[in-house]
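Q: For a teaching handout, I want to show students what a protein-ligand complex looks like in token form. Below are the inputs, and the small molecule is coenzyme A. Please produce the holo structure.
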Amino acid sequence: MESVNNEGIVAFIHPEAKISKNVTVWHFTYIGRGTKIGANSMIGSLAHIDHDVVIGKNCRIQGNVYIPPGTVIGNNVFLGPACVLLNDKYPPSGGVLRAPIIEDDVTIGGNSTICPDVKIGRGAVVGAGSLVTKDVPALSVVYGSPARTVMTKKEYVLKQKTWKKKNSCRKMKENFN
Ligand SMILES: CC(C)(COP(=O)(O)OP(=O)(O)OC[C@H]1O[C@@H](n2cnc3c(N)ncnc32)[C@H](O)[C@@H]1OP(=O)(O)O)[C@@H](O)C(=O)NCCC(=O)NCCS
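A: Here is the structure, written as tokens, with coenzyme A included.
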């Protein structure tokens, strides 16, 4: 089934996928059978969200993300561009699949890879380009390959506040001049 809006073809959304209110699905994205997406979430272009995935409310799934069958993602989760989640530890295992669990309020930086059977705890942050091979504790910040804890969420929030304050008067337009 093709899903179309007035800008042309938007996405392939399986007829048995459940898309809640106010969900935006951008161009050329695939959403498989039985997948559920919670209200107010956004799915970027070229994302591949396989069958039987659960995504909560208010999530931001950026372009080019891959989410395998059986993944469970909580509410208010941010997946940066080109994140890859995996579910087969010893491929091809013939269907013995253990998808990651991403708890509420998690942020995952662009181009990160989350290995099979890994849980990312509530509120944790994964830095850009990380390879996450083990569970990430709630409210911790990890990065690297393999990813290691580098700071607390509290420290991250302080850095985020400073970043916003320092850059609040800059317009995005400046980046394109
Ligand atoms: C993880 C992150 C928050 C760390 O920020 P920070 O603490 O301010 O880090 P700094 O820039 O001060 O760098 C500190 C050190 O960590 C390293 N580092 C920073 N981020 C890293 C990452 N993602 N992976 C590996 N090393 C990293 C830096 O190279 C630096 O190393 P050095 O001490 O050897 O010079 C940030 O770098 C990041 O990855 N943000 C996510 C960006 C993203 O994916 N956004 C998606 C939406 S566009």
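A: Two things your students might notice: The domain at 2-152 is CATH 2.160.10.10 (UDP N-Acetylglucosamine Acyltransferase; domain 1). The first strand starts at residue 2 and ends at 5.
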